[in-house]
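Minutes, methods subgroup
Present: GH (chair), OT, SY

1. OT presented the first of two proteins processed in the latest run. Sequence and structure tokens recorded below as shown on screen.
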Amino acid sequence: MSLAFGSLAIGSASALTPVGTSMIARVTGATPSGETMPNPNHTNTNYDVGGTDLGIVWDKGGGQYFVAFGDTNNAAGNWTRSNVLAISSDTNLADGLSFSTMIQDTPGHAKEILSSQKVNNVEMTVIPTAGVTVGSRHYIHYMSVNHWGDPGRWYTNYSGIAYSDDNGQTWTKSSTARWNNNTTTWDNKFQMAAFLKDSGFVYMYATPNGRFGDVYLARVPENGMLNIGDYRYWDGNGWNANQASASPVAIGVAGEMSVAYNTYFKRYLMTYLNEDRQAIVIRDAPTPIGPWSGEKILVPGNFTGLGQYNAFMHPLSNSGPDLYFIMSTWYPDYNTHLMKATLTADMLGDNIISDPSFETQTATPVMAPWYVTGEGGIDRNLGFARTGQDNGYVRNGSGWNAIKQRIAVQPNTNYTLKGWIRTSANNTEGYFGARLVNDGPVIGETKFGNLPGYTELTVPFNSGNNSVVELYAGLWANGDTWLQVDDVSVTKGNNLVGHAGFESQPTSGLTSPWYANGNAGVDRNLGFAHTGANNAFARYDSGWNAIKQEVFVEPNANYTLTAWVKTSANNNDGYFGARLLNGGPILNETKFLSLPNYTQLTVTFNSGNNHSVEIYAGMWATGDTWIQADDFSLTKN
């Protein structure tokens, strides 16, 4: 089975990322009558695994891979195990994914590696959601399911981490590395996870229980996986010890997630099931925090007719354009399959909007990820589109009518919204812009009247203290009034520095994303700023004192860092530059002496094989010495 996706033009030539999605082989279960694709493992006879799902793959070292599965039945169809685990040494996926063995408790019987009580409303099952290996220790993130709900909804007691020090034969559930759910609201953000090992950290992307939550992010040093206090949560600006501060890095609905870094494209990839779109989707980003692109269809809902879900990427895909992943189906047999798609150069990568030209709407009976206030929908193949076949519209005789989409943004950051709109002749009160969700306060918009032909509208906006905003194209109808919209985009501004002018710093002490060495803080409304009301400072009579920020970058890329700095008259040992984290090796810096007036300093550097760097302005104090800094900028050349 295969499906090719067409290209899509928005301004310049653009293309969806995955093409040629195809099913390569069965991974688990028996071969049904009439099925002709390979089945290298025959798990029903070799391991008494007649049905199972998931298939989370990670590199266990030594040229081998672990593959973890969820609820498992035996060859007779009885659900006997909550999870099983396979080992694979197969490096040629073109003809299927072969196991070397499965972890067994008796010969020919795959072992349940994580126990569960199997009692409804207590603990129905324990299901793995992610895996990673650090050194010789292996880790599995799992969820303890309290009970199953409606389709796509289930409720967890907690999520946790188990580890193995004997090559996966036995696993211990950590009693402290747990994220307890609220069993009244069931809304803890870290109940299902995907692991990514990167630059000395393990990043944990997570969603609430079920398939309808947004995507959140935490990270921990590799050696701190079992220390719950070592985890830091992305709050939209930086890393925060408070789990409740976590803000979305991508908008769901997201279920059964997988995340990887592809060295061929130098992009992070995220896959998950979007149940509202009835499709498995993929996003990509230049850094682990984003900005994540809009969703692109990896496997459409009508691909097999088998009720498919999840796309767990195989690490062998991480260095080339061929993406191999394990996908589950629930009909007619509950099992897993090896899939392949080819990734093309992603020219939509900077656009945060999902389905920006409404083209995937032809394959779904619902409007997600778009939604409407009032009356509206999708013109499917009616000849009204600006490009492609489809466009969005609203039309009514009265009231407010808008077509909308939520996106995740970085707080206090500049964005540009663009879209092409045309209207009925009687439109006098149309609006295109960004606001807080649920028709909240407007943060940027433009008003338009009659637009007889498609006209590009542009709205710059700053996200303010918000992590999620709502984009809209709408009108106040007066008689039969309509608008059509197509080819919508949102792109983040070029400056990678958060709180670059310190205007959003809430206290006189540096707060996320800024931090200090020695004695440093914020001059708030004291008249010392280069622009605006605030600036940063470092001041002391001895030692190294600096203002710093971790900024995520693309590896092996050239960047330009600037800031405005002035100093006390006695400063003779100041430095401005970029280095690796925690005072690591310097990538480049410039030394500065006394600067009686604000002076712009500039440093260019190459990021090397790094995904984040530390920018800084600081000085070695001798006597009462100070610097003031403002209006930082870091841009990719």
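2. SY then presented the second protein from the same run.
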Amino acid sequence: MHQFSTLFLGFAGLLSLLASRPAAAQQATAAPSLASSKTIQPILTGWRFRQVGKDNWAPATVPGCVHTDLLATKQIEDPLYRDNEMKLQWIGHTDWDYETTFDVTPAMLQRQHLELVFKGLDTYADVTLNGQAILHTDNMFREWRAEVKPQLKAGANRLLVHLRSPLNEVAGLPQKYGYNLFAINDEQAMGIVGEKGPVLSPYTRKAPYHYGWDWGPRFVTSGIWQPVQLEAWDAAKITDFHVVQRQLSTQAAQLNLVMTYEGAAAASGPATLVVETTGPDGNPGPRVEQAVTLQPNRHDVTADLRLPNPQLWFPAGYGAQPLYSFKAQLLQNGKPLDDAGTRIGLRTVELRREKDAYGKSFEFVVNGIPIFAKGVNWIPADIFQTRVTNQRYHKLLQAAKDCNMNMVRVWGGGIYENQYFYDTCDEMGLLVWQDFLFACSFYPGDDAFNNNVREEVTYQVRRLRNHPSIAIWVGNNENEVAWQQWGVPEKMGNHKLEVWSNYLKLYRDLIPTVLKTEDPSRPYWSSSPSADFEDMAGSQTNGDMHYWDVWGGTAPISDYEKQVPRFMSEYGFQSFPELKSVEQFTVPADHDIASPVMKEHQRSAVGNPRLKEYLLRDYKEPKDFASFLYVSQVLQAQAIKLSAEHLRRSRPRTMGSMYWQLDDCWGVASWSSIDYYGRWKALQYYAKRFYEPVLVSPHEEADNVRVYVVSDRTTATPATLQVRLLDLGGKVLYKQDTPVQVAPLTSQVYLDVPKAKLLKGHDPKRVVLSCELTASNKTLSTNMHYFALPKEMALPKASISATWQQTTDSTYQVTLKSKALAREVWLSLSQGDGFFDDNYFDLLPGQTKTLTFKSEGTTSLAELRKHLTIKTLADAF
């Protein structure tokens, strides 16, 4: 610890300082004194809104948006119900006013600085205070501040926010720039005017997903989507507090504390920076005091701090996530001017890219451990962002961790998430791949646009850089591959050199320059996918890859196994939600995938026919609508399982698997593994198994069946590998137990058996290969392998017994048993809701399986027995 002496401004010094200042400055600071603390007055109540040109004022909620306020005041019906979204497109073409009044005391008016702060405005806003213009905004992702002391008065003050339509705002911009950046995208899949409306706009700094993707109606929002507050301060305020990790070892962490303050115009004299630390155990740690000489404008104050015997932060599955808290105070005359707090985790992170036999590696190394990234793409959890509660954030991220994930990719078409999201990732050990918010398009390169982006990037990096979970900054989503493979240069004609120059200016120059100043500790990657300009984007030998020939094209699902990238950062397959969820946005008459309402609830250009086409390749025609929904989920889960296991088996050549996507923001057929209403699809349950720390993965290769074991553990694991071939009634046709020593951080074959030796002439349509890895009488991983497509198999109608018992007030256990093979066993309740800790699994003949069920609401054993529904694949046809 470094201890510094504290200097205080004495009474004589204070008189001297005041005497040297202009009279106006003396009057402005006469009361209260220079040592008054910064105060914050929230402005979140009393808001109302109206459609511009009408006198239809109604109560509004801030933070919020126009759509949610219209819904709350019953001016519109639920936008996500049936085809209501088509009736509500006018909202995005309309201007809106929001206003409130707030009181200011005479004492508050005596403060040197009074700043009105908007943490986020969506997006084009003209702000007036007591009839005087104070702000004009054009970026959803920036904090906006205005010095408003001249406009304020004692008593009530009227604040008006005039929100201009984003659609109207960008409509004329192609003419302004002389070329149409919308034209780079396919008119139906990604264009400005697809079949049903506008899509993402490259001209505006607004969440791209608000304009939709692929095709379909969009909810183009406007609103005050972050808090509003009035900040009062005098001599100085803290504008940023950054804890920089200089060196890290098991013996000590050498930290650099950087406090940035802004001094008032006449600020001068001694002050003190005090930083207090709190360890992961909650006990006080080292304390620092640093002398400060206050000056006008913005300045950095630095101090060094040594933490002895630091506890390291690890990604989920590799260790704990200890977090250290820091509180910085800026003092003058012994009184606080301002304070700031932050929390960090101590770890090293590296994106290792070294030449090897396959090209160039792409792997994250944390605390010296090469991490296979097991994860998922994250999109905003609601089209109306302020509806996402902390509880919902926590539930979704907990689901990721519970399913053995260690990374989430914040996709560049969404938003920079809120503080709670990143705090939770810190606590859970979920690494964050953070895209900057540019997606599937090219952007202007004029000074005004780039300056706007520079402010955005600087603000967001400063806001997020203390989070240990953030592992990488990435310039954009799919813009580089769009240039190389989507025919963009041809579409841009004579402007192609200008467009590409603008691209380089933004992602190769501007953003890296900001990062070099603000956060040089983390890797930066210019685009996803990319090979850092060393190869084609999406190369299998260099950089990361997005793969969409399966689903986006018509390639067979088996083509997933032809992709061996260095890191798969995006791939996906669609399914429908289950019937309970579909019933929340439909009526029974809509229950056909070809119905108008079901078509509207589809976010893929190729849509429902593509899903049915893929389904019928592997499965028989489902017997009814509910069965189609169920089989679509099984198909999605099987497709992603095939790819995820292949990627994990390909370690260390491949070091990442992040499927698209965890959650859904619309309540539709989507690529998500958890539906909009929070229900786990089959894929989420599958992910828990295919992302296990130790995975057994049988795979047919030529004439052999090779049984791989993939381990993410950092130490060797002695285990027993059991392989059995059974007929559908449970008769064991082949069995082999093999003791194995599973090597750490590897993928290896531990059993290689000729397929003919396994089958011994048995009908491949009537058998199942069961693989189980156990250690110390505990099952580490199980997996099944089938030798025929589901539609080719003679699956029996399984009769499954279910025995219930209650363990707590809301927790129960159900034990299942079947005499015949039951594939894709799905448990649900015909009435009520709750959560089964496992689902969509295969139950072997004679096997006993016990699940835990957590009830949502009041229930009883009698009700559970009555309402339990068990469905298997054989029941769906």
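Chair's summary of item 2: The domain at 235-344 is CATH 2.60.40.10 (Immunoglobulin-like).
Next meeting: continue with the remaining queue.
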